[in-house]
Amino acid sequence: MRLHIRHETRYSYEAPVSDSIQYIRLTPRNTPQQRIHDWHLQSPGDTSQMVDGFGNLVTVMTLDKAVNEIVLTAEGIVDLTGKPLTKDDSPFPPAVFLRQTQLTEADNALKALAVQYSANKRGLIRLMKHLREHVEFMPGATTVTHTASEAFKLKAGVCQDHTHMFLACCRHIGVPARYVSGYIHSSNAAHVATHAWAEAWIGQNWQTFDVVNTLNVAESHIKLAVGLDYRDAAPVRGVRAGGGMEQMETRAWVTNPAGGQ
């Protein structure tokens, strides 16, 4: 399936920003599951390219002039091949993804939930469904600083929270699992196109676990970055001097050129 992606991110500031360095993970890699035919990233500053420790493509943007807003636009065409995840494609051995982080550390409640499920594909699918049924998808209920345990206590969150909870449980029962950021295509025009999901190492293969959509396959997913949690795979992270209060707006569209939506 061929998909067209356009992603716009706008940062507005109450006062001019004099200096800014941003690490942008908005460029997908070629993998057996996705082939990049065309991709462009527009930004207002000077840019250089690097690959981070997880193998993600990173654009480093530096801006040394005063601005009141920063606009980033990523756009391109990606073919999804439909091939399943199989081999280990990480620079690190899977065991690295057993490490908990501040965002995924499991409290007693999550630990008690995790041990109810077996460390195999069937068990993790059941865990995924449990989390989706008991934690409501509610935009605005959490922020990017909320931990898995906090979102589980609230019983509400968004895709990154569901993913963090799933990672916390997997790692507690000895299953390596990693955070994935990217896009998802849906025929529902109201569906949020930016997305996060998990991949767990079972046997000798990575397996997809999209908790929000209770999917065990990634047939409509475009992968941007992976890491231990959101902070490793965030589309944009950086530092700035000045600017005061910041307001961010982001919009993304994933469409099928042949089929409209």
TrEMBL record:
Domain of life: Bacteria
Domain Transglutaminase-like span(s) in chain numbering: 151-213
Pfam family, one: Bact_transglu_N
Coiled-coil annotated spans: none
Protein name: Transglutaminase family protein
Naturally occurring in which organism (per UniProt): Marinobacter halophilus
